[in-house]
Amino acid sequence: MLTAYFDDSGTHDASDVVLLAGLFGSEARMDCLDRNWKKQLADPALGYKPAVSRFHAYDCNNLVNEFQCWSRNEADYFCAQLRKIIIEADVAAYGIACSRKDYDRMITGEYRPILGPTAEAMCINQCFVRTLAWVQANTFDPNMQFVFDNRPSPVRRYAGTVYDAFEAWLQPPPVLRGYAFKSSLAVRPLQAADLIAWEMYQHANDCLKYGIGPPRREELRELRKNMDFTAQFASPASIVKIRDFWVERYREKPGLLDNMAKHFTEFDPENPDYSHLSDNPAEEPA
To answer: Do residues 146 and 163 touch, judged by C-beta distance below 8 A?
Structure first.
């Protein structure tokens, strides 16, 4: 069973950038990551610091909460050890960031429910798209599941809508075996996803400030150099490209577009109703 773990960053209202990032791999590789991560939490700084109950990248980098009595060098060493664990687990990573203002300005009207009611929703959509494309191109594992860090109910509902669409129309392999929103306290690979998301968030803010280019932080350069790691930033041009793809695709099918928009707006993953997916409920969408 392949599992993808994703965490969000920048989803607070004051952030200019919203993103999702995480990692995915086989059961054996994820077990290896989890086992070594647990060991590192138990002995975070060669016996000089007490055990850490949960790694949170913001806390560690800002020396707050469990890390408030740590030195900068101790926290940096701890993060370096965790990055090493991720790299040695031989898992793959993906992250996508988007400017909140650009998304809200460019994605409006009938296409917004389909592409995502928020920039975060668009990122969730792309995580499904890109992860499944990677799986089909690089693995032979027949089964796949997704795990996200806990989010409010509207985000969970939208993720369930996207999952349902892929479950219905994806040609396996892989067969989708479920999705869930979990606490990173209980699911340690979500802590590793949090580390990936933190580094992506720093990079995305640099892209807004300096323009899109190579990572400025050594930590992200280390991860991208030593593992299969795709990082994307949804620039205004790429947002327009996504929008125009859907405009062209449904130019001659406005009725179907309306039904799809209604589906993404009203669909309840707990009580699914597929009657709006087609102009004719007896027919499958073209």
So the answer is: yes
CATH 3.30.420 residue ranges for the chain: 2-26+91-249
Nearest by Cα to 247 from 135, 101, 127, 111: 111
Per-residue model confidence (pLDDT) at position 274: 58
> Of the candidates 181, 186, 215, which has an alpha carbon nearest to the alpha carbon of residue 95?
215
What residues pair up with 84 in beta bridges, in sequence order?
Answer: none
* Contact criterion met (CB below 8 Å) for 156 and 191: no
The rounded radius of gyration (Å) of the Cα atoms in the chain is: 20
User: Do 201 and 62 contact (CB within 8 A), yes or no?
Assistant: no
Q: How far apart are CA 15 and CA 133, in angstroms?
A: 29
For 184-207, give one letter per residue: b (16+ CB within 10 A) or e.
beebbbbbbbbbbbbbbbbbbbbb
Residue 273, pLDDT score: 63
Residue 19 pairs in a beta bridge with 9, 97
CA-CA distance, 118 to 236, in Å (whole number)?
Answer: 15
* Model confidence at 207: pLDDT above 70: yes
The structure tokens 């947002």 sit at: 239
Q: Model confidence over 108-138: pLDDT tens digits?
A: 988 898 889 999 999 999 999 999 999 999 9
What are 80-114's pLDDT values in tens digits?
Answer: 999 999 999 999 999 999 999 999 999 998 889 88
Residue with tokens 């792309």: 126
| Structure token digits, residue 42 | 């138990």
Under 8 Å between Cβ of 94 and 20: no
Q: Give the CA dihedral 264, 5, 20, 162, nearest 10 degrees.
A: -10
Please determine, looking at this structure, whether the domain spanning 2-26+91-249 carries the CATH number 2.70.98: no
Question: Are the CB atoms for 24 and 33 separated by under 8 Å?
Answer: no
The pair of three-digit structure tokens given for residue 79, joined into one six-digit string: 């993060």
Phi, psi (5° rounding) for residue 146?
Answer: -120, 140
